[in-house]
Amino acid sequence: MSHPAVVFPLADVSAALLAELEVGPRARIVAASVAELTPDAAVVVFLIENPHTPAWTAKALAGADLNVDGDPIALEKGTLGALARERSVLQFPADEISREDYAHLDVRQNVTALSYIPLLREDQLLGCIEIVSFAGAPAEEVLGQIAEMAAVAAIGLSSALAYAAERDASLASVMRLTQLYDIEKVFNATLDMRTLLPVVTEKVADLIRAETVNLWMVDKDDLLLTQQQGDDPLAAPGDRQRGGEGIAGDVSDSGEAVLLQAEDEALVHRNARAGDTAISLLATPLLDGESLTGVLEVIRREGEEPFTEDDLFALTQVAASAAQALHNSSLLQAERKIEVLQTLVSVGQEIGSTLNQQRVLQAIVSQPQLVIPYERAAIALEQRNRLVIQAVSGMTKVDASDPVVEKLTDILRWAAGLENEIHVTQHGDEIDSPRPETREKFKRYFEETGSRGFYAIPLTDDEGSLGILSFESHDPDFLTELHIEVIRILSSQATLALRNASLYKEVPFIGILEPLIEKKRRFMAIDRRRRALTVGAAIAVLLILVLVPIPMRVDGTAQVGPDQTQYVRAEQDGVVQSVLVHEGERVEPGTPLAQMADWTERAALAGVQARYNTAMAQMAQALVGNAATAAGQRQLEANYLRGELQRATEQLDRMTLRSQIAGVVATPHVEDIAGKKLALGDPIMELVSTTDVEVDVAVSETDLSLVRANDPARIKLESFPTRTFAGTVSVVSPAAEVAGDARAFYARITVPNPNGILRPGMQGYSKIRTGLRPLGYVLFRDPALWAWAKIWSWFGW
Known about the structure:
There is one protein chain. Strands 4-2-1-8-7-5 form a six-stranded antiparallel beta sheet. A six-stranded antiparallel beta sheet has the order 11-10-9-14-13-12, sandwiched between helices. A six-stranded antiparallel beta sheet has the order 16-15-20-19-17-18, sandwiched between helices. The protein is 41% helix and 28% strand. It is built from 17 helices and 35 strands.
């Protein structure tokens, strides 16, 4: 049955709509007003919020108990789709439609009819009013009144949607400015080019909401795609492009940023070449001053809104920050190249300054680690047509029976058979090598050793093959092109040095045999009893030398190393207001040392605090007045000011200079610094640590293998001839230093110094106890090693 018409004042509805600004409250007013006209029915107000991706979204419910799916509903689905097509008042009796036609409704009563009134504004469909009747459809008069109300409601809802869009755009602008500020900080937080490039593309993709970001860098006369975020069927990392070959190349020639939409000829041509569905593209140059360093290319595909001028502006701002960060990174790379070249010269001098082959080998595998981030280097030489490992970084002596050395020997012999450079890496489960044999070989080797990167280069000259040099690491990308070039130069220097060392031989052997033969003849000439006593005494002495243990000590000159020193420096320009310590005074970590004049900082802190309090008060007032937009804006302002407040507080705290270590003030007349004007970084005072001291003990090369960390040591200093200081070995230096005419390694002894009596530069003598050894080993170890080295150098087996 139909219900009688109810007269509803349209002016009251209009006034109620004008009293609200937001979409939700206005939709609820419309739903409630229609519900008053349709008793025993439920009313739902649907809106189409985004015309680019139209869908029905329920905004308000009124009347009988009813639930609606909260997710957007497809525009052409069911009875709502019929309204989208007809755009007029529709009514469906329940017996003429199926349950699937109104599946978006969750109803527990019998539906008798569905009625729909469109919300139209200048022929644009904004939404609709859905009436779910449970006791008869509304009369035509009622539908007429609702249609009149819908015309007014459409105007109110249209303005509310425009207001919401404007508010969201303002918030988006504020958020984008915040993102730009954060992105600039992230870009400037790293100077490593390999780390910076993926950060740039990732942050641009997040900011612009793009599926693909291509970062092209100028390389010689064209552009090189150095980093890519997402997929691009037309470009991959390593590709090159010139002007006229693509959009990025054209931007590099013109130096002007471009915004291309789907209908633009350049983007149409690009999509045709790539078989792509890009609907919008941005490209902007990366400029370092007036010089072009690269191009940022950003692509958005179907399913998203096209890029706007705001997106282009944001991209150009990011590009400026990225260009500056890339410029700083390139400066760091240049400095590293200089450091690499200096190290290469130093290594060349090291291996060319001696004809001792073992010293040359150790320098080759150890010294390059200053500039090449490898974890293990090894060198193997040809000996009697067989490749034998002679040196491994981190090993003072190579044990051929060691399983690690055996695996390394096997892979080096295999690599030497290729007679070419070999560079194999593993990313995930993929091994980068064109040869199946190589992939299978290194699959087992990488599993056994844990390495993920391997590089080997043969050592050859005009006389033939000399051996092979290898480097490996757990990082598959540990070598760059610069590192590989350095290794090639190093291999040439190593080949020459090793060839010279192998030609240097000494054979003073014939003069040793004759005296030994004469002594044997004299011994055999004495009587048997005397000979037996001599042999017995010799055996007894030999047993004593072999069986009786005594402490083994390694001695060397000792020198107290420099104390840990902290130079307290001004953290910004200013005047020293007061000095809080005196010369010779002990301080602990965190002790205030000096106070800089901080009137400006205190004033800045007070100003920021006042602005923050004002923003918080305005936000609270807006929340009380139910002004969501104003509250959101004040909250964003308060969040920004909270960060400024924290920075101002930190700035004020930096005006009080504090100690970072426990020590003693070592600056003479430190009180005279008060009133002095200082610039950023100027030294104010010096602190010297008084806890423990480090004593460096020179250990000869022959004794190095005996010394271990935690070995006990005793030290006698010239400044305290009657006292002996005890300590333990903390570390043994991995590289030798020149000590007079010889080379020595240094064992660092940690000695307690609670009273601060040990001063830097004190000299003396130290003995390091390395455990118990047989008497003969202690007495004859040095001459035995010398003799063994001589004999080995003569024969070289």
